[in-house]
Amino acid sequence: MSSPAPTPSSSSSSSDTGEQRRVTGACPHDCPDTCALLTTVQDGVAVKLQGNPAHAHTGGVLCTKVSRYLERHNHPERLTQPLRRVGAKGEGRFEPVSWDEALDDIAARLKAIAEPQAILPYSYAGTMGLVQGESMDRRFFHKLGASLLDRTICSSAGGEGLAQTYGGKVGMRVEFFAEAKLILIWGSNSIGSNLHFWRHVQTARRAGARIVCIDPRRTETAEKCDEHLALLPGTDAALAFALMHELIVHGWLDTDYIERHTLGWDGLRERALQWPPSRAAQVCGLPEAQIVALARDYGTTQPAAIRLNYGVQRARGGGNAVRAIACLPALTGAWRHRAGGLLLSASSFFPVDRAALQRPDLLAGRQPRTVNMSSIGDALTGDAQALSGGPAVQAVVVYNSNPLAVAPDSAKVAAGFARTDLFTVVLEQFQTDTADHADYLLPATMQLEHWDIHTSYGHTDVLLNRPAVAPPAEVRSNAWVFRELARRMGFTEPCFADDDEALCRTAFRADALDHEQLWDRGFTSLRLAEAPFAEGGFPTASGRCEFHSARLQAVGQDPLPAYLPNYEPAGADRDFPLAMISPPARNFLNSSFVNVRSLRAMEGAPVLEMHAADAQTRGIASGDLVRVFNARGEHRCHAEVSSRARPGVVNGLGIWWRKFSPDGTNVNQLTSQRLTDMGRGPTFYDCAVQVAAVRTPGAGSSP
Description:
The chain is an alpha/beta fold. It contains 24 helices and 27 strands.
């Protein structure tokens, strides 16, 4: 028999008798802000959702997307019962089935697969929660001996670049950006994707700080900064080296900090001196004077802070670009100040007990092959390299992700999921593009309905999410599903009996943080120094900021940061002369929220931003239906001639569900499965295309 649905925590409120109560929670989405939530509940129904004003980082404010979370929560198309496929894969036709029937059949079919490595989990950041995202599921697949998933699709190149330089995903504390005198926002549309950080930027600006945005696209953030450097995609390392060059030749260096707290300065200095601003200007597509002025500002202003984001690392040389940029604060001694340094991610500060949560010991010495999620198209269509030489994938279990929409080279992804011999289970809240291909589609809880615990990559607080309302009767949490599958598979280890609240308590050791405060207030702060690297102390082997990486040298790679040109740079291919980047649409978050009608109405339709010069030579006007194409495929959308695009670069805003696009595709029809220089990440922003107007009969000849 299936267990009853989870109920709201009685410890968070009084009973429902018409009286309103408020329940503390956390935003589950892939965003550095990780906001604290307050849900107002009346008669068992969530009637209001707001940011928790008691949480300093949230300050009572939510982004446009999450402020409409109740619209998503109460969506009429939400999945509310288990479903079994009755049509062809991709048709999206299903029939209701009981939980017992679904789980019994899923377990039986997984048991029947002789080689467990032929079973592949596929998940990412549909929730950032440690419980619903990476606990019971990991235990289940470890015990099963399934293939391991290399979860690379978002941040692995940049994370590896930081790890090689700083020793982990660490940086300055976000609240101290408010005190900086110069802020470089590098590869980030903070207004759209890091709203609470922008509040600190505004505080700094009111105190006289200069704000500079470095981004190929003229984003909403770039428009509001004092200066915008619209460099070509994938050229960030070249710009960083030119800044170093100027710091060196003008003596804008903190030689004491370099000597005491860095490693490999001589080699980095020699490399940087090969990059005068004139060379970088040609590579980056920037005016030389703009580079020189930025270097002067950075070298002569203290404290100076860099907010780096992951757009920088979605190209061939992405890991090296992050390494090069991460060297800058050590050269000027910016780390001496609590308002100086760099922040890409704070993830490594959190002492998560992942061994206790995920139980890798259940592998019992087995070493299953690893499949890179960024190569899922190749893996599901039988590419031997993507499969690490192992067996073909016979079953895939998808949760917290929508690979048909978000993975690169999506024509191959769709072909893989369309295989009639591939057994596919999808845990979801809505019938996404991926869900249309499921053999079983299992309804998952939403954030207001389950326990979870959250870290952040943009601040240094831990947040607890309590269930505020009961889910629909036949909806279950991810952790519940994997517990039930474990029971049906005959897994008897006591860890498979842990309920969701117990898993929350397992995430951190008792001495790692203030558990009493976390359970009482819904959040607690890590105990960290205000200026964590003022006296060095980086979590590297040497304790220094490592310009020279012995680990890279040991595996035959360049130990110093380097500039690596894109696989597909702008203008290099006569057939596909335009570089395309695919930044997120402001009102979507990856592929989440695309089906929320009010947010989709704000976006209108899939668009391709083009500079007027590129549009004019192709006879394209705003509103025209266009073909965006390359050797991998074609995507149709509407052109928007806009100053947001620089010459030679088009911006395909994502990530739309394929079913909401004019031709059933999205921008990932065009992106490739090539990987980054380090971290094995995808190269979404390293993509060459051509664009042509779609001419209807009687509309005139093509240009």
